[in-house]
Amino acid sequence: MANVAIIGTEKSGRTSLAANLGKKGTSSDITMYNNDKEGRNMVFVDAHSYPKTLKSLITALNISDIAVLCIPPQGLDAHTGECIIALDLLGFKHGIIALTRSDSTHMHAIDELKAKLKVITSGTVLQDWECISLNTNKSAKNPFEGVDELKARINEVAEKIEAENAELNSLPVRIFIDHAFNVTGKGCVVLGVVKQGISKDKDKTKIFPLDRDIEIRSIQSHDVDIDSAPAGTRVGMRLKNVQAKDIERGFIISDKEIVTTDYTLECTVSKFTKKIEPASVLHLFVGLQSEPVRVEKILVDGNEVEEAKPGSTCVLELSGNKKLAYSKQDRFLLANLDLTQRFAAYGFSK
């Protein structure tokens, strides 16, 4: 099983690529394309509402194990740069850079773009990612040339990810929900990804931040009924004792989560943002959840300060109004939606 985020700027060819890689499934601000013909089940997630909203980008990345960053022949723009910063702040481990529309690009220009990317990604999580040239044009002389090479590379990375996910099976179950709806005769159905542990049919557990007891009535993966779902599995679940209208994207199925509206985070501020000041309003992302928060206090070495400079580390005390659920190991992202490059910092709960 592999979940793959297909990301990039609007005209990067990301949607054409995702549609070529799988059969269209669930669609909202993200669209799933399912593929069970490559020797393993794979889901390709197109964050097609980005750059209009950051939420679709973060959702796609946080339900995926692999990222494919699509870059068109025009090269890097502000939103491609923002995707690189998001991947780096998230510490995204596995990925591939797809240089799209190679059919309309001279080989010399592709080599120049690769050299430029090597410089730009140096020191980031992307610095060792492979670059693959391909085209996403149905009308090209050789349509989708290079996509088979991309598929082969994804399969190689997927083998490593399956081994990594197997090590998470002994941990307590956590499932991130990305969609919820009612089905006539079946009740509440949620879609999501098992982030850790092995979820089982008839498990009695909870849903957060509701903190409500629920039962998993049944589990499917790729439209097939299964008794259990290990880490990394994309699932559909029927739930008892909760209604779809009560569930929002980002809710978590598990036995225990931290639930709060206020946060104290040990943060690293991006080098590519403006300074953070007390009383400023940022947008907080954790898992698939998000909400606006106010910066109440900034601490450096235990002392209260008036600003957190780009590239610095600090403790941020934040207040919000909406309950979010998380665990200690979860990575938070902070964004300033008023800036061109919106990602401001990442951090962990103190």
Distance between the termini: 33 Å
Profile the largest sheet. Answer: 7 strands, mixed
- Tally the helices: 5
Radius of gyration, whole Å: 20 Å
Q: Which runs of at least 5 residues are low in confidence (pLDDT < 50)?
A: none
Number of domains: 3
Q: Helical proportion?
A: 10-25%
Number of strands: 23
Shape: globular
Strand order of the largest sheet: 2-3-4-1-5-6-7
Q: What is the SS-derived class?
A: alpha+beta
* Strand composition percent: 35-45%
| Pattern of helices and strands | EHEEEHEHEHEHEEEEEEEEEEEEEEEE
Question: Could you name the CATH homologous superfamily of the largest domain?
Answer: P-loop containing nucleotide triphosphate hydrolases
InterPro entries: EF-Tu_GTPase (IPR050055), P-loop_NTPase (IPR027417), Transl_B-barrel_sf (IPR009000)
Protein name: Translation elongation factor 1 alpha-related protein
Keywords: Elongation factor, Protein biosynthesis
GO molecular function: translation elongation factor activity
Written account of the structure:
18% of the residues lie in helices and 43% in strands. It starts with a strand and ends with a strand. The longest helix is centred in the middle third of the chain and has 20 residues. The protein contains five helices and 23 strands. With 350 residues, it is of the alpha+beta class. The chain folds into three domains: 165 residues, 3-Layer(aba) Sandwich (Rossmann fold); 81 residues, Beta Barrel (Elongation Factor Tu (Ef-tu), domain 3); 92 residues, Beta Barrel (Elongation Factor Tu (Ef-tu), domain 3).
